[in-house]
């Protein structure tokens, strides 16, 4: 029996975290509690979710590595594809519907496990085959099936409502469930927080490992490889939370570098700043950490100017972050710290921070939002739920992925950055209200600098915040750490 098959737990063996599947039972209980605050539910009604599907690559028979759909993962914690899950709302019982596998499966993919195996493994009340769903719900005289459908405010995509053969025979409500389950996912349970602490620990250690591995002459993808290997070998993290961003030199000015058209393929040169944005995931719970440092392990004076401006922004935000704080205010605070640092470094002049804010100069150097919610997705759901503040239309802050007022149990990123993006710099230099504050001669030194981003994952506590990410952050800490190269 594999470690993942151990009854009642997700575990990758050795020193990896052992997660009880009761975590998902608690999630289901929380969902029912929130769901039942609404109008009365018809008798014999069910919440119904469809899990992720197994897929092949385009028209081939090559299987894609499966990763569970996040709402289904939160609710049931199932590792395998092609499952359905239901919750009997009044009886408060959970049912999994498993695929009926062909005999040939046993030849190529291993033993065909009976429903009783999944009953014990996942701690649900019943397990049936997926092709029995119509019969099951008819036998229960089902009053309503509540399926999942709603807009993801980050991607613009909609959650897929469950479908099965014969569903047209039942009354279906696909509106009530989505806002309820999103609300629940925003606030992390104690067990979920422990998982997020663990994956942050592994990812932090992987970043520290990379700092000691990289050196001039290596390629960016080798840093990516080192991070992925450490996360899996030491932490049991098979998947990454997102495509690794391993930018060096001017590539650091590309906010989402690392995609297939720019696949972390530059050779790192002595004097380059590295901007490495990487995070592993465990049991589908994610981390999102960015470290910036010189590839040779020693900061230049210009690198210190930009780095310390961003570090001051991050630490300034984390020092005041607590329940009741509006995250839009934190974005503006981070911008002010960065503008102060650029003024101190001589890149900006002829005005105050307040005057520069009025012409949105901060958005020229930090064109993204300060952070986003985290959990089962890197950009987790609920950033702009109906009850939260609406999205701003102002430059820079309009990219902020959540405008929530902070509450205990929220996990989100604090990721200020400062970049030298030619497209934005050229526009600012041609903008009379902005160019008067820019010292063009000093700015020219930084044209190929790239950028600095520092990203922590942070838990909002009762009276402040807990920084889950633990990596060297000050200039001295980084230089001392990188002296001891592997």
Structure write-up:
With 486 residues, the chain is α+β, with helices and mostly antiparallel strands. Helices cover 34% and strands 14% of the residues. The chain has helices at 22-35, 70-76, 105-108, 115-122, 133-139, 177-186, 190-213, 220-235, 301-320, 327-344, 353-358, 362-365, 422-429, 432-435, 440-443, 475-483; strands at 9-10, 19-20, 46-50, 84-88, 93-98, 126-129, 145-146, 172-173, 245-248, 273-278, 281-282, 285-286, 289-294, 411-414, 417-419, 451-453, 456-460, 465-467. The chain has a six-stranded mixed beta sheet, with helices on one face. Strands 9-10-13 form a three-stranded antiparallel beta sheet, covered by helices on one side. Strand 17 and strand 18 form a beta hairpin. The longest helix has 24 residues, at 190-213. The protein is globular. It starts with 8 loop residues before the first strand and ends with a helix.
């Amino acid at each position: 029996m594999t470690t993942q098959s151990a009854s009642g737990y997700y575990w990758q063996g050795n020193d990896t975290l052992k997660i009880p599947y009761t975590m998902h039972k608690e999630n289901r209980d929380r969902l029912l509690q929130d769901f039942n605050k609404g109008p009365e539910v018809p008798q014999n009604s069910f919440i119904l979710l469809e899990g992720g599907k197994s897929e092949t690559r385009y028209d081939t028979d090559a299987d894609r590595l499966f990763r569970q759909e996040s709402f289904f993962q939160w609710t049931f914690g199932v590792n395998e594809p092609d499952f359905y899950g239901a919750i009997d709302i009044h009886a408060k019982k959970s049912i999994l519907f498993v695929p009926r596998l062909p005999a040939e499966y046993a030849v190529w993919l291993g033993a065909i496990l009976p429903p009783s195996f999944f009953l014990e493994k996942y701690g649900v009340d019943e397990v049936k085959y997926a092709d029995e769903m119509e019969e099951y719900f008819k036998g229960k005289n089902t009053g309503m099936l509540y399926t999942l459908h709603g807009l993801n405010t980050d991607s613009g995509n909609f959650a897929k409502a469950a479908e099965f053969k014969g569903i047209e025979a039942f009354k279906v409500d696909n509106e009530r469930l989505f806002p309820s389950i999103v609300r629940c996912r925003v606030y992390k349970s104690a067990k979920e927080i422990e998982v997020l602490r663990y994956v942050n620990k592994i990812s932090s250690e992987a970043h520290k490992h990379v700092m000691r591995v990289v050196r001039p002459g290596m390629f960016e993808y080798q840093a990516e490889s080192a991070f992925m290997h450490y996360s899996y070998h030491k932490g049991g993290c098979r998947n990454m939370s997102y495509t690794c961003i391993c930018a060096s030199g001017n590539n650091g000015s590309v906010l989402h570098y690392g995609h297939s058209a720019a696949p972390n393929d530059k050779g790192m040169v002595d004097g380059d700043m590295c901007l490495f944005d990487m995070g592993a995931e465990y049991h589908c719970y994610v981390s999102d950490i960015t470290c910036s440092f010189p590839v040779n392990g020693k900061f230049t004076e210009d690198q210190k100017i930009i780095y310390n401006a961003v570090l001051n922004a991050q630490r300034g935000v984390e020092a005041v972050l607590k329940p009741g704080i509006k995250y839009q205010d934190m974005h503006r605070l981070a911008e002010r710290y960065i503008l102060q640092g650029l003024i101190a470094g001589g890149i900006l002049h002829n005005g105050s921070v307040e005057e520069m804010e009025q012409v949105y100069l901060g958005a020229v150097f930090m064109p993204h939002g300060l952070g986003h919610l985290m959990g089962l997705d890197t950009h987790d759901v609920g950033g702009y739920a109906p009850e939260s503040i609406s999205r701003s239309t102002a430059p820079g802050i309009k990219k902020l992925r959540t405008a929530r007022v902070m509450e205990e149990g929220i996990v989100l990123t604090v990721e200020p950055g400062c970049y030298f993006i030619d497209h934005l710099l050229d526009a600012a230099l041609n903008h009379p209200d902005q160019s008067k504050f820019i010292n063009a001669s000093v700015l020219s030194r930084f044209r190929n600098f790239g950028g600095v981003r520092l990203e922590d994952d942070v838990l909002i506590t009762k009276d402040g915040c807990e920084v889950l990410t633990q990596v060297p952050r000050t200039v001295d800490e980084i230089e001392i750490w990188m002296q001891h190269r592997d």
